[in-house]
Amino acid sequence: MQYISTRGLTQPHTFSQAVEAGLAPDGGLFLPDSWPDISGKLGDWEKLGYAELAAEFFTLFAPDIPREEWHSLTQRAYERFDSPDVAPLRKLDEKTYVLELFHGPTLAFKDFALQLLGLLYKRQVEHTGKRLAVLGATSGDTGSAAIHGCMGQEGISIFILYPNGRVAPLQERQMACTGASNVYAIPVPGTFDDAQRVVKQTFGDTAFAATQHLSAVNSINIARVLAQCVYYIWAWLRLPPEARGGVEFVVPTGNFGNVLAGWMAQRMGLPAGSFRVATNQNDILYRFFTSGEYRQGDVHPSYAPSMDIQAASNFERYLYFLLGEDATKVREVMEQMRSGDAVNIPSGQTAMKASRMTDAEIRETIGRIYASYGYVMDPHTACGFTGMASDRVSVVLATAHPAKFPDVVQSATGAEPTHPTLEALKSKPLETHPLEATPEAVKAFIDAQHRA
Ligand SMILES: Cc1ncc(COP(=O)(O)O)c(C=O)c1O
Ligand SMILES: N[C@@H](CCOP(=O)(O)O)C(=O)O
Fold this sequence. Notes:
Radius of gyration: 20 Å
Distance between the termini: 29 Å
Mean pLDDT: 96
Strand content: 5-15%
Family: Belongs to the threonine synthase family.
Shape: globular
Number of helices: 20
Strand order of the largest sheet: 3-4-14-9-10-13
Structural class: alpha/beta
Protein name: Threonine synthase
Largest sheet: 6 strands, mixed
Bound molecules: pyridoxal-5'-phosphate, the ligand N[C@@H](CCOP(=O)(O)O)C(=O)O
GO molecular function, one term: pyridoxal phosphate binding
Low-confidence stretches: none
InterPro entries: Ser/Thr_deHydtase_PyrdxlP-BS, Thr_synth_N, Thr_synth_N_sf, Thr_synthase-like, Threonine_Synthase, TrpB-like_PALP, TrpB-like_PALP_sf
């Protein structure tokens, strides 16, 4: 299997090459050039543990890495999760399940891909001898998960840009209190979208990217999305058989990587029913899926800060399919979006459902679900608990631990959620490297800190 770019101007890459690059040199996103059919494998996969399932899944997409090595990689990636199930599926009632994706080292779903990606980077450094500069933007969770996947690793420096003052205080501590010498937590002015734009512009300097061995750690990296497909398969296999076919996955969404992973699993033959994109008040995706118009607006800080996003990177992968896998059309539409114009796209048969929530509704929902089930959830997960389907089972993806966002959770439930990992961070010194939000500033900083 090879990996092609959504913009059609990049030579096909192997899995390892696509992972190393992250973003395709033509500015597009990598996708597999063919899709395996997993429907016949689900019966065998039902007996596997999480790490084994992930290994079997990846052997279909990355034949350049031997199967035994995949098993060793996934075993190591998921051994630090604090639940034996890795991704436990909790039943709230006959119609409602929660897939808990916050049992990894940084207490957010990003650990599923980033623990593995850290090991893939390590392997890459060992195989090629090249020192990698890993670069990413975060609205809070990707940054800490990426840092925990890479910190202390020989041959890797990691640079994470985040919007100054717009991530939760504990998320910032997870990035800036590691004490690791290869980690650079970089607050920049503006929003997550500004940080992500600067990261993409930095990759746009292909000579710089090549000289510094730059790799993208956001879900623009195809390994991120593939790793996230696995927990949809896992959850589907854990549902009662009669609930599986129609199941609706409800996915708190910002950069569109998480829900795209589920949709891709369905495209490979996972017989899931439907997907609902759950947004906060930054509702560009809600507006798209309900009207067909993709129009960027201003970002407004919310109780679910990791989803304060208006320019969802992975939407480009979805667009590629909506536009009939026509890379020329993707280039045209992406250019239209870049110049700030609204874009109208027929959503057609592949349309997902969508919902949105204001801050007041998020707080009310956390309180209501706690009162009804005794279940405490974080504000991103709460965005999923509206407009539940009445005719089928729903699985809501719980994307972060409530203790990462103690203020809103405490105001909704009356009790402060805590976690020992986060408590330990409170007394540690913060080390940040503030920069201007420009590719020039970022390149100069990487140049000064990273020995390629
Ligand atoms: C806690 C949490 N929930 C949901 C999301 C949305 O995920 P995605 O960006 O993959 O759509 C994010 C990040 O955006 C997040 O950090
Ligand atoms: N919510 C994310 C935003 C970046 O998403 P990614 O999946 O593209 O890395 C975050 O926590 O940073």
